[in-house]
Amino acid sequence: MTAPIPYIIQENCFWLTSERGIFWEKERALILSDLHFGKTGHFRKNGIGVPQAVYKEDLQRMVELISFFKPTKLIAVGDLFHSADNLELQLFSKIRAVFSKMQLILVKGNHDVLDKSWYHQNNIELTNRNYTLSGFHFVHDPLDIPSGNTEFYFSGHLHPSVSISGIGKQILHFPCYYFTENTGILPAFSKFSGTAKVKKKKNNRIFAIVENSLIEIEK
Amino acid sequence: MLQKTKGYQVIKEWMQAKKQAPFNFQEETWHQILIGESGIVNAPTGCGKTFSVFLGVLIQYINQHPDNYQHTKNNRLQLIWVSPLRALAKDIGRAMEIALQELDIPWKVGIRNGDTSASERQKQKKLLPEILIITPESLQLMLAQKNYAEQLNILHFIAVDEWHELMGSKRGVQVELAISRLIGASINKLSIWGISATIGNLEEAKDVLIAPLGKKGCIVQAKMDKKINIESIIPEEIDTYPWAGHLGIKLVNRLIPIIEQSNTTLIFINTRGMSEVWYQSILTAAPQLAGAIALHHGSIEQELRLWVEDALHTQKLKAVVCTASLDLGVDFRPVDTVIQVGSPKGIARFLQRAGRSGHGPGEISKLYFLPTHSLELVEAAALKQAIKEEMVESKTPLILCFDVLIQYLCTLAIGEGFEPDIILKEIKSCYCFSEITDEEWMEVLLNITQGGVALNKYDEYHKVIIENGIFKIIDRKIAMRHRMHIGTIVSDAMLKVKFLGGGYIGVIEEYFISRLEPGDTFTLAGKNLELVMLKDMDVLVRKSSSKKSKIPSWNGGRMSLTANLGKMLRQTFNKALIDETEIEIKSLHTLFEVQQRLSAIPRNHQVLIEQIETKDGYHLLVYPFEGRQVHEAMSAVVAHRIGQILPISFSIAMNDYGFELLSDQPIPLDDSNLPEIFSTESLLLDIQKSINSAEMAKRKFRDIAVIGGLIFQGFPGEHKKSKHLQSSASLLFKVFEEYEPNNILLRQAYRELMEQQMEEERLRAALDRIFHAEILLRFPKQLTPLAFPITVDGLNRNSLSTEKLEDRVRKMQQQLDKN
Predict the structure, then answer these.
(1) Which of A42, A167, A191 faces B664 most closely, judged by CB atoms?
(2) 3-class secondary-structure state, position A104
(3) Which residues of A touch B475 (CB under 8 A)?
């Protein structure tokens, strides 16, 4: 893991990592979005043989982040799970049990379709729309952020990525963090997920995940 | 012997009554069929090739049932007629039905393809007609039926129409596999006949087709001289800077008199996108043609396509703008003129298109060539010469297509299931898989039963299961999805385009739509459409009045010049400014002069290399004239080798004449290291390294992922649920590259790239030629006429870099600061 970048919002320090997660120092909270756990299993169950290693890597990366920051809570900004229940989720349950003291809050995303009892059994606190902590809000879909808001909202859903171009018709794409004055959109945590392009404008800040490092996109 | 048989006499009398007589090649085919041979009939369209095989089958039947051939009904399936295009089926079926009726033979002719109604299919399920005209995909689907073996076991004949088109494509591999199974299932000795236009490797085409029979077979050739009259439409003003694709439209007014003077004209456009543009432009130039001109391409709704085809037969149309969709088979008798817009890229295709006009034996095919950029006039001159020298290309048969094999095995698993040992023997009898190793076979079986790398305990992959040694698919949902999937072998993932309020317009490649954003407009089926949103697998649109609209770039645009034509082209450049007897060369005089003044004109024994600096960066242009495919490979290798001298990033563009490496820093290439850069030494290693870094396999993987069943397109009624199963080919490619690089389908993408595109042999030969040629290294002050079309073609650029990604990003950011 390379050094995280501090990002200050209203005197709170948020550490952006190249591992696709944010650590909120004051609240000792790890913020992740669009983890899509169980996606490879869902594909495989339906006869599409994608490698499960990508799921394993996602889980490992989460464990690394937890071990490094030792958060007291994990806030998942939606799409923690990809689809209906499948065997792969048992692997998640096992890991959840290891970090049982850590609070796990899920802001329900459009993919979170599991039975309520499932979340309960795995000690996951489910919030339907908006989770608020110390004046910071967490919603899944950026469209759910009320217009004209003055408080800060974190969201996911979009899977943002940025294209940068240079002389000689070079173009490169990277997943990224996307911030405006009052909002922050997280990159999809899962490596088995597509992306949607966002553009650098005057009033936003973009941090591209370039392999193992974070680079702020200036132009 | 043939002449004495009852069958022959019946057929001959029937022909005589119509004042016809069999052609020699037809009699020869009948004779071969009579003695149980298999093989290929080689004849141009419109001279009775269908009847050569079909009547041969009837003669055989009459001979075997001399007394009751006019009485016995329901004889079960006798002849399977594989035809690549749905459009062909109706016409051939009609012709056969008329003949059967007149001969008073109570056989039935059935058609089976994507358009066949469910009720008709049900009827066929109970009892198959004597003759079944079928597409390769539907033939596969038949093998997914539970009782297919019983239904097919008394089959006698398989005929494969347009084999030259099928061979070399994955649909051709589907045919090979189906044939091997039909032979395995039949109690008779099957006879297999292919019908093919002229290609350079007819002998090989025959071997591929009948490989599962293990016989030598024969080739019956129709000796018919076809007169072709080719005329280039010469622009009044030649652009010195030919911009790919832009000259053509300006010439639209020249088409109008040709259309008006002809009976019916087919206008062939290379890409579906451009066909949309041409259709609009012709209507604008000649509004009086409204209603008498139509558009025909593969993405247009089927009903409309069928209407166009009917209208062509009945001479209701003055002109049809079409793509390769009308390349094959059907003879539209009213067609007397063909216009080819843009380079046809190959001699065989050019001949075939010319042959779409003036079919009758002895008639002259009339073809106009309209260049889309001025340099294409050189191609026209080269084509004329090639036809004079009777040069025709070969089609390379595909080998080891594991995606098709995986699809086929799943198909069998849905039907009766299969026993690996029996099926392996059949598969090995196919040309495509004759070299399959035991390891590869095991991998394929593992792929369908275990789905690659899994976390054992947490896995639920059960696509194909094994019961008492029989491999089966029992999950109904998976089976249903697979059936839906078989038809999608046509390559890219296709999305349906619909109006918001309902109403289906056509289909479009996912690849194209993925580059649009809501609010963008594009053209499909002659309509300007605004993208509203993507919903499930549908593209929802509304009508747009916007004048600016994007034109889908379909794969057709990437077609590459064949080696033969490339060679002719190089020779034709020898004439530039020297021998101007040909109108095409003469009209390019000014362009050649500018090229000569700024740089040089490469002659056959020379290779031109230009280095130019513009505001875009540093350009290196090389002109080997080997066709886009070879250039794509060569450019990657050259970029890789230069990248070894110092870390550097390239954006790469190419056309049929040459390629461009563009960089943000000076490119270190001069006399001293030229020989090294173009050397054939350690070529194979450099090819492998460069294709890995250039991500070229990604494009190949798109098709393979669709055929191999990794990309699921969704089907009616399952929209919501299937949404969770969607992923793009590029994402899958990334995931496999990183987590399962050994995956058999991923490896196939690289192999296909090596074999089809990076053809080591052709690349080696090309490099060798450059190595021994006289190199003209020039440093023009500005872009030259030859360079221009390459650099402006922004689409489909490749990239290759030997810099560290992080460094690249930082540098790009700094460059932006400076500006």
Answers:
(1) A167
(2) strand
(3) 47
pTM recorded for the entire structure: 0.83
The residues with which B623 forms a beta bridge, in sequence order, are: B608
* CA angle (B500, B503, B507) in 5-degree steps: 95
- Interface with B, mutate which of A43, A58, A111, A170 (most B CBs under 10 A): A170
Q: Please report, for chain B, the start and end positions of each structural domain, with discontinuous segments joined by +.
A: 2-221, 227-388, 491-557, 599-700+748-818
Query: B432-487: per-residue pLDDT in tens?
Result: 999 999 999 999 999 999 998 788 888 889 899 999 999 999 998 889 888 877 76
Q: Which residues in chain B have their CB less than 8 angstroms from residue A176's CB?
A: none
What are the structural domains of chain A?
5-158 (3.60.21)
At B567 the pLDDT is 83
Q: Are B494 and B508 in contact (CB under 8 A)?
A: yes
**CB neighbour list of residue B568: distance below 8 Å, 6 or more residues apart:** B382, B383, B385, B386, B391
pLDDT (tens digit, 9 = 90+) per residue, A2-37? Answer: 889 999 999 999 999 999 999 999 999 999 999 999
User: For B48-83, b where at least 16 C-beta lie within 10 A, e where not — what string?
Assistant: bbbbbbbbbbbbbbbbebeeebeeeeebebbbbbbb
Question: One fold for both B2-221 and B227-388?
Answer: yes
Could you tell me the CA-to-CA distances from B606 to B574, B601, B603, B765 in Å, in that order? 10, 9, 5, 15
Does residue B491 register a pLDDT over 50? no
Confidence at residue B247, expressed as pLDDT on a 0 to 100 scale? 58
Tell me how crowded residue A203 is: count the other CB atoms within 10 A of its CB.
Answer: 7
Give me the pLDDT at residue B244, please. Answer: 52
Q: By mean pLDDT, which of A24-33, B74-83, B368-377, B767-776 is the weakest?
A: B368-377
Name which of A7, A67, A19 is nearest A216 in CA terms: A7
- Other Cβ atoms within 10 Å of B652 Cβ, number: 24
Taking CA–CA distances from A83, the nearest residue in chain B reads B724
Q: Which fold has domain B2-221?
A: Rossmann fold (3.40.50)
- What are the tens digits of pLDDT across the range A79-94? 999 998 999 999 999 9
> What distance in Å separates the CA atoms of residue B307 and residue A206, rounded to the nearest whole number?
53
Is B736 in Cβ contact with A42 (below 8 Å)?
no
Distance from CA of B139 to the nearest CA of A (A): 23
**Residue range B520-528: mean pLDDT, rounded:** 75
Q: Which residues of B touch A42 (CB under 8 A)?
A: 724-725
pLDDT of residue B82: 95
Do B731 and A167 make contact, defined as CB atoms within 8 angstroms? no
**Residue B555: Cβ-neighbour burial (10 angstroms; 0-12, 13-18, 19+):** middle
The residue among A59, A158, A169 with the most chain B CBs within 10 A of its CB, best to mutate, is A169
CB B764 within 8 A of CB B683: yes
Q: Do residue B650 and residue A168 have CB atoms under 8 angstroms apart?
A: yes
Domain range B227-388, its CATH number among 3.50.30.10, 3.40.50.720, 3.40.50.300, 3.100.10.20: 3.40.50.300
In B, which residues are within 8 Å of A210 by CB distance?
A: 805-806, 809
d(CA A156, CA B618): 41
Contact B458 A194 (CB under 8 A): no
* Predicted complex ipTM: 0.92
| Token pair of B801 as six digits | 């870099």
CATH architecture under which domain B491-557 falls: Beta Barrel (2.40)
Q: What percentage of chain B exceeds 90 in pLDDT?
A: 39
Torsion angles phi and psi, residue B367, rounded to 5? -135, 130
The pLDDT of residue B556 is 37
Exposure string of B89-123, with b = 16+ CB inside 10 Å and e = fewer, is bbbbbeebeebbeebebebbbbbbbebbeeeeeee
| Cβ <8 Å between B732 and A50 | yes
Count CB atoms within 10 A of the CB of residue B675.
12
